[in-house]
Amino acid sequence: MDSYLLLKSLHIFGVTIFLGNIIVTALWKVMADKTRSPAIVAYAQRLVTITDFVFTTGGVILIITTGTMMAAKFGKISEVYWISWGLWLFIASGIIWVAILIPIQIMQAKMAKQFAYENEIPQKYWKCQKSGYGSG
After folding, report:
1. Burial of 98 (0-12, 13-18, 19+ CB in 10 A)
2. Are 77 and 83 a contacting pair, CB within 8 Å?
3. Concatenated DSSP letters for 76-108?
4. pLDDT digits over 11-44, tens only?
5. Contact 63/133 with Cβ under 8 angstroms?
6. Residue 135's pLDDT is what?
7. 17: Cβ contacts below 8 Å, ≥ 6 apart
8. Stated pTM of the model
9. Using CA atoms, how far apart are residues 96 and 88, in angstroms rounded to an integer?
10. 52 contacts 21 by C-beta, under 8 angstroms
11. What pLDDT is recorded for position 83?
């Protein structure tokens, strides 16, 4: 197998785990939230944090690394319009993820540890949920 095909395969794998995690995590987080059960919501919130760290971060690393290595085949990244746009949009989404979503997830994870064994989820949790949806 040539190196470009290997890089392309790893790139597609990275995109698959990146987008797959976002889609699946959002779905089961929504379903868990619908139960309004503190134990279920807390468990789902904990898993959002874990899967984002493992799969979203892992996907990002694979996408950036392999994408940059493959882009070199087409010339300088700044000279290839579609690669440059793709990279900047990916960076913009990363900034939003790091600046907005991760802090909300951390706040919700801390709250979830507290309410996991209680009878009620505090309104502050739901407010955070609406502001950034709190899932990966």
Report:
1. exposed
2. yes
3. -GGGSHHHHHHHHHHHHHHHHIIIIIHHHHHHH
4. 999 999 999 999 999 998 999 999 999 999 999 9
5. no
6. 46
7. 55, 58, 59, 62
8. 0.81
9. 12
10. yes
11. 87
